[in-house]
Design goal:
This protein is an all-alpha fold. It is built from 11 helices and 2 strands. It has one domain. α8 packs antiparallel against α9.
Amino acid sequence: MVIDLNPTFHSIYPVLFIPFSLLQLMFHSFRTIIPVLVGWFYQSHPRAVADPLRSITSMTLLCLWSARLTHSYFRREEWQLGAREDWRFTDMAKICGRHWPWLSFFAAYLSQHVMLMGITWPFFTIHSSGLPWDPLWDFLATATAVTGIVIACIADTQLQSFKVRNELRKAAGLEPVLINESGLFYYSRHPNYFGELLWWWGVGLFAFRLGQPIVLCGALINTLAMIPVTIMVEERMMRKPERVEAFREYCRVTSVWVPWPRA
């Protein structure tokens, strides 16, 4: 039995979030919650049909992912909602000038909405198929998703610890460490991104097992979208002259996303 898609549910929040953007309550604080609402919508739909174990497992993992990302967001923002705008949007606003208030709907919200629809598509497939749990394939999907969550959680914690240590060094009158090369960051320049991508590919594997490989397009789009994000982050790292040479060497020997032995 196929669940009817609800276009109103999928299209209303980009419009409603425009006022929040102008108040600097940016999209990222909501991005951690929206996928859970979408997943719950599919799971609780009257016409939903799904293997109970797959449904419970995927939704539990989705809630864990949301809790991890929400905690990371508030920890980074020092437990304040909307205390500051995402620096990438700030840079875009400076470039666009007075046109940013209306351009932000397309650049910052509608584009993210399309991506969110793609990455949550597997939950529609999961809750529209009663195919029994497969001990091999569904376990692979679960293991991939869990590994992604764990890697992202560890990387976020290590990055936060690095920032705190540098703040303590500054307070003590010491020079800050220019490059974070500890923990997972020794093997990957962006292990947190890799964990996030791996999580969504794991979710896609659930739906792939159900005969809907097309849903992997969501994970693919998310991966492609991470390329310009990575470029922007690394360009920002190069803005400080004292860090340019060290960061170039770090890039030369260290993998971009996938944790890998150094060159």
